[in-house]
Amino acid sequence: MSRYLVTSALPYANGPIHFGHVAGAYLPADVYVRYLRMAKGEEQVLFVCGTDEHGVAITLKAEQAGMGYREYVDQWHEEIKALFDQFSISFDIFTGTARCPQHVETSQRFFEVLLERECIFDKTEEQWFSEESGRFLADRYLQGGCHECGYEKARGDECPSCGTWIDALQLKNPVSLIDGSSPILKETKHWYLDLPKLQAEGLDSWYKGEDEANPVKGWKPNVDGYVQAMLKDLHERPITRDLPWGVPVPQHLEGAEGKVLYVWFDAPIGYVSATMEWAAAQGKEDAWKDWWQDSDTRLVHFIGKDNIAFHMVVFPSMLLGQGEEWNNKPFVLPWSVPANEFYNLEGRKFNTSAGWYLDNESFFSTYNPDAARFHVLMSMPETADAEFTWEEFQATNNSLLADKVGNLISRVLKFVDKRFDSRVPDGVESILEHEFLADADAAFAQVGEHLENQSFRKAGQALIAAASALNQFFDNMAPWKSVNSEAPAEQAACRATLERCLAYLELLSRRLAPFCPESAASLRVMLGEVAAGATTATDVWGTNEVPSLCTAGAKIGEAKVMFPKIDNDQIAVEIERLNASAATQA
Prior knowledge:
Blueprint: E1 3-8, H1 19-40, E2 45-51, H2 56-65, H3 69-86, E3 93-96, H4 103-116, E4 120-130, E5 135-136, E6 142-145, E7 154-155, E8 172-176, E9 184-193, H5 195-207, H6 221-231, E10 237-238, E11 240-242, E12 259-261, H7 263-281, H8 288-292, E13 297-302, H9 308-320, E14 334-336, E15 343-345, H10 360-366, H11 369-378, E16 386-388, H12 390-420, H13 435-452, H14 456-477, H15 479-482, H16 488-512, H17 517-527, H18 529-532, H19 568-585
Parallel strand pairs: 1-2, 1-13, 2-3, 13-14, 15-16
Antiparallel strand pairs: 4-5, 4-9, 6-7, 6-8, 9-10, 11-12
Helix pairs in contact: 4-7, 5-9, 6-9, 7-9, 11-12, 12-14, 12-16, 13-14, 14-16, 16-17
């Protein structure tokens, strides 16, 4: 049986994350993991993540804030984790590249093995150097004239005026942002990852699905097009920088003093070191090998499209380049990389500094987190950019969750409470067959099929279709009419209808769990002994599962409102608040 190692892109500990990030890499991963745990078993799934805590942007922002680097990333680590908690996104381990005890040693060994296997080479080149500060200047520490448009405050990596990507050496009249001095060009040594060599030695065959030891699920069109273009013209990439914060380049190497591994090199290694940290916490330090060096492992990376290059070309090359130098075994390569496009807000990109964002504290103190989860999933940018709008969020909450799911739960439980003293009716001899129940069976089966294929929108649509079919079944059988009938057949039909509704609500509670975990748990409490007596240890997804007969007389709990409706005035206030925030920042 395959085991699944699932990762989400390490969020950068340099500021808050928002709904756009959550939609891209974290919520779909959490839903997929919850599904896998139920369908494959707890022991077959591991979900790792952590903050990316190195890099130029962090050093620059920390220095501007007058904070130590570790203090700065600790602050953002906690804030990022708090948002994941609000969304009920649950990792097996959430660590960070500066806090994981195994990360420095693991990253350095990756580097050393690549160097020994001649997949890394060094070369000496010129770089801007501040004589006043006595340090080389990374691109983000520089400002100068754009060689394309002449804008005088271009960064060392990009011009904010014309959008041109800049090689720092192209800046006109550069100035150090550290001390305001005019830097000079000075020679320095750096190391490069030989991607063309690794492409020839296995990257191409793996990507094409020709490597029997590393099968692939298949690539999404947006991933495939991007990677195909990269592979046609692949170049070496620098993997070291002159910075005071990061994983040090092994110091026994000549010219390594003051140099650290480039953040994009050490960050994906964070998946490996996080697994090592998790294994050590379990008291089984070697258990990480079962996840990273066993051919039965399916490695799945959830990312946004801006991370495709690193997870589809660079990191697989780094893993390939390790050969069998670790425990005489190779590392597994990615099996699936379901990258999403960008998720925007009301027609514009999320932008905290411009006031165009959703205030997390206000949102989660006002709205149901599960409603937010479900709406983000139903509007997820799976194949094209998508967006969050307040009116569509309201529609998801009111028309789908409240009217379809919540209404079904309420009307069934309240009817059983009123007419059958909150107990499963007795005297039900056979499972009732009905066209709407068959529709519900088919829709529930599709939920599992779509989650297996990482099609989250379709999975959510199938769940709603199942709830709709059950509402139609309840309406068609009209138990409120037959409950008062003196005809034995009609009374039996009433009892059978309610028994089937309760049995399907138990199934709904399980199918709802990956999408809306807190609401699913609440539903199981409402179902009382019906849920407690159900067998879920071997939950079968992707088949037309007919729920077993409920135990006659089983006690149910009290029905409660799961998805309160959101009125138009409330939405109008939110839209006005968003526009006011942007206007204030402007």
